[in-house]
Records
---
Amino acid sequence: MTTGGASVTVSHETVTVLGSAVHVARVHGDSAPVVLCGGLGSSWHDWVDVLTLLGDAGCSAFALDRPGFGDSEPRPGDVPTVAGEARRIVAVLDALGLTRPAVLVGHSMAGFYVEGAARLEPDRVGGLVLLDSSVEKSPGALIPRRLRMPAARALARTSSAVGLQALGADAVRHLVVQAVPPGGYPPERIDELRRLYREPAYLEAATVEYFAYADLAVELNRLRRATPLPALPVVVAAAHTSHRTPWGARWIRKQRRLASYLGGRFVVVSPSHHHVMIDQPAVVVRTVDAVLRDASGRA
């Protein structure tokens, strides 16, 4: 299966890792591998333009669908962890035969996962790009995990069964994503996104991951205290709509602090909504290219 881009073909593969079938959308090139990890509810569709541009530049890159998202196999009993997603990233690299240290790109919640991978698998990671990454200084949850996870599954399954998921799929997509590719959405991508947003397994995976957010943030903070980040290039890229608001300014400050904490470079991508890879794919590719060059110079 292939997806046509402007001048490069995005190929699609399924690899079995950690006991489940994982889908990747991939472009082939000569660079160190670039791994694109989307945030909550994201799939390879959000990375099509970035993948195409990376392929045009001769890069080796793939977008990874976590279980239940995109075209990856659901795992209804699983709850995501930072360590587990770090292992999944490395397992996919192994399955694809990509042995060079990879540049990991994490959007939103996936910023937790790629930073975790860099700390837990330092020999496999050559650089990090955090795209409008989640930031939590003192995370916590009022409701115990043992209650939250069953509630998440029950909520998702009930919403699917009574038709709320199908009824609200388009509205939720527009509310959550907002971003639009520079060339707009082709009709076939709109149809595919509608199909994905109506899958019961998709809603359950997204709801469980959302309800696990505090646990993931706590796990990463513990990992930060126990395991140092290796010396590698890091870029923290914060999205800004270009409209000045108090909460927008606060978000930029949090992202700047994250970059300082990780010893990385801080950039603002504007104008852009949260899904930077959709709104500003060319900026994302330039940022990745800079990290690839920096990582190559350090090797």
---
Amino acid sequence: MRISRRQLLAGVAASSALPAAAFAAPTRQFPKGFWWGASTSAYQVEGALDADGRGPDIWDAFTQAGRILDGTSARVACDHYHRYAEDVALMRAAGFNAYRFSLAWPRIVPAGTGAVNPKGLDFYDRLVDALLAAGIRPMACLYHWDLPQPLQDKGGWLGREMTGPFADYAALAVRRLGDRVKTWMMLNEPNVVAVFGHGLGEHAPGLRLGEDGILKALHHQNLAQGAGLRAARAERSDLMLGTVSNFSPCVADSGTDADRRAAALWDAVWNRVTLDGLFKGEVPALLAERMAAIVRPGDMELVRCPVDLLGLNYYSRNTMRHAPERPFAAGWGTPKTSRRTDMGWPVEPEGLYEQLLDLRDRYGNPPVFVAENGAAYDDVVEADGSVRDSKRARFLEDHVAQVHRALGAGADVRGYLAWSLLDNFEWAFGLSRRFGLVRVDFDSLKRTPKDSYRLMRRIALANGL
């Protein structure tokens, strides 16, 4: 499907109607071909949960169990499933040249394995064709948390049996879309899935299994990731393959030995299980004893797999304190900054620079793109209908500056994608938290570009896009 002239002009009109921002972003020059854009995930934006043969997933069950803060659901969300052309037009009007989205596993393979749903694949055909017609690089992520419920019923990420179904799904998706989609990510934030879904019970599937659940879910996602990378490569040799995770510097809340130990252990869990496995084929030394019963001979050879691209999601540093009641005796400390988003998260742009240099120095400077970076604020709609989100715009500008700084220090950074294109269903918070460059009225579904959208447009166009 091609974007109509009317849709494109509507997107341009929406962006140009924004009032001038209260600040002027400095013009920084980035390398030619640098990717500018935004990210979303299928479950958070698509809606249409019962449409066209989609199967149930773990977030459907989590919602039905009453675990969403504001009592809402993703049944409609942004209705991107039906309104994707309008959203692509907004990206084109912003000058974006890249878009990371996820495929909904239960929309394509409703049971997680076995029968394929042709209508699910047809939707992604339409989306990809619209992106290409708009000059936007489609960057597909295979798994952004929406595990088909039938696979969860068989144990989900607690079992290594997930490896085969994920590899089959990866091969299927690449076989259908790989002629047009050349950039593929396997997983999104396996550490968040493990910690909050299997250790603390705050995300789907809602399991409170502590350290054992966290480490099993981490390792089995690593195995599936390795199998998925190999399956995708076997289908096509012309792809850029990688994965995405949330990486953050882990710092001690104080100078005590106990707090330093907590920070080191959390760093091993949050960052190193994924990175050391992928790049070195190793289990972090601090976790070797704990993982001895989980890791079998030959596992780490499968986990270690060369990637063409690594996606980095960054929001803040992790400040950790000794907390014996928490997994790994690590609890959240008090960051040394007064800036907070409306999620309560600290605003620490320098941590992005630190993380990019960590990847440069410890893992051979792999090609990296910032796959998510953004902030939730309680936006106010002005009397004229505009959304003056100066805090979010400042957040983005401060982090873009740190990416530019890291490039100057030799980090191999290929792009910056804001989280998120649209206000959406923010997991356990429901519709109560807004991260979007574009405001979505969840009653009318009207899209309104914010000042942060205009900032990103200015940066993209200043770099010749």
---
Amino acid sequence: MKVLPRRRCLTVLVVAGTALLAGACGFGGPNSPAAGSNAPIPDTLSKKTTISFWHVYTGADGAAIDGLVKKFEAANPNVTVQAQYVGGFNDLNKKVVSSLQAGSPPDVTVAYPPNVLEYVKSKRVVDLTPYVDKAGAGLSKQDLADILPNELKRNRYSTQGGAYLSFPFAVNVAVLYYNADLLAKAGFNAPPKTWADFERVCAAVKALGRTCYSANANASTLNAIGYSYGTSPVAADGKASFGTAQWKDAFGLLGRLTGSGTTRLASTGDAQTVDQNEFVSGQAAFIIRSSRTAPFLSKAIGDKFAWNAAALPQATATARPTTALYGPGLAAFASDPDRQLASWQLIKFLGSADTQSTWAKSTGNLPIRRSVVTAPAYAAYLKQHPATAVSASLVADAHWEGALGDQGIVAFLPQKLRNSMEDLEGGILSGALTPDAAQSQLQAQATRLMAAR
């Protein structure tokens, strides 16, 4: 199978070959959070306390984090936060693993759920549930009701009895970006709402001598297309479900787009951005990327052409289109009562409505709080950033890329499976694989990898 070589900055990461995280591709059996995290929680700090916070944000995002940390320290003068950029998620994950092995982890880190499930095997992850529930220091019923329900669920873990081993921080969704000027030249005044319409638009764009869809073979994009067909990569019972008729339709779509010559495989994985460059240069009418891409596109495109975001086309027209949802949370590691309380105070602050509004406006991330979206300040921001406004409207009906139950995460996609998804999607888009062959191989691999968890 010939596909583009992969160089990724991945959403979900696995570190192999570490004794600490043996069997880390899923739920490897019950592992308790840190025993020390179950100690009585003090009402206040007993002394001035310093905590470390590892993150992945640099540039404007890093400046935003630094500004929020300073604001937190001003409101909490007994806490000093040593915020540190430690590289992308891959580097961060490796450094957290090494620090756990050395017995000196950070107090707080940015992390995706599968990484948290790796870290819990160290028995150093703090169960945040008692902090969430603690009168005064915790969150009120109104606060919890304000946070997006799926965000709460995907930071709880069913193997730990629904414990919060992380807490919501950032939300992103997969969206369709389109060149409105190019669509107008092709005879269309709005983006397509169904995949059938998408194929018709693509034929018209091809007639202009342009690429219709510059494709990035990406697991989240593939999942988003699956959701648009009413299916999911994993069933509610945690088993792989790529063998459904809906997935056959989804793979068939990719095959037709490739066979028609309207679609080009430009990139594979998050780190490769040829598809974005083709869109920015006006060569392509469509790309599918994260909502976080909007600020980059706005700066890169400027006033060269009119563009916007839209929901991915759906199998059938609907007033409630769906897509894939993702984004990291915040986890804490066991230390002493003062540092753990200070860590929770920072996590609580970063998830507050005021902070989420500032963070969203500064970075293009979507807020985890429902009240932020309707607040005047953020509503004004969305008027100035229509692509982000579209993304924000999609969050309520978006799906996290795994299975969620009443007590949180039931199953997630192992990284090896995500790699296979990208390889096989790339195989279809490059013409190296038929849709049926790709679907069959993916279901077989997914069944094996999900069972091996």
